[in-house]
């Protein structure tokens, strides 16, 4: 038996707007769009993707699942994402080498420091 990781599903009050925000932030492509769903992937035939699905209920607390990203230049990437509409958030992380941000609907994600070699 095998499992292939297809996507991460993100509930959203506006799947198109949030999905497009993430597509731009990641440089990914849109592979499906409807009124209630918006799917992006690194490339049309590359998995896993992110699928944004309508849920007419606002986020209520800290996310139980979040994404981590490791850029070449953490400071530059944080600045780019903040300029794109992300916000810094404090989820109790204290002084850490990663930066916690949130997308326009408040979903937290981390921008990690460059990997030490």
Task: Write up what this structure looks like.
The chain has 117 residues and is an alpha/beta fold. It contains two helices and eight strands. The protein has a four-stranded mixed beta sheet with strand order 1-4-3-2, covered by helices on one side. It has a four-stranded mixed beta sheet with strand order 5-8-7-6, with helices on one face. β2 (29-33) and β3 form a beta hairpin. The longest helix has 12 residues, at 15-26.
Tell me the layout of helices and strands.
Layout: E1 7-12, H1 15-26, E2 29-33, E3 37-41, E4 49-54, E5 67-69, H2 74-83, E6 87-88, E7 99-102, E8 108-111
Parallel strand pairs: 1-4, 5-8
Antiparallel strand pairs: 2-3, 3-4, 6-7, 7-8
Can you give keywords for this protein?
four-stranded mixed sheet; alpha/beta; 8 strands; single chain
End-to-end distance, in Å?
36 Å
Give a count of the beta strands, DSSP E runs of length 2 or more.
8
Largest sheet: number of strands, sense, barrel closure: 4 strands, mixed
Query: Any idea what the radius of gyration is?
Result: 15 Å
Point out poorly predicted stretches.
none
Structural class: alpha/beta
Averaged pLDDT:
93
Strand order of the largest sheet: 1-4-3-2
Brief sketch in words of this structure:
This protein is α/β, with parallel strands linked by helices.
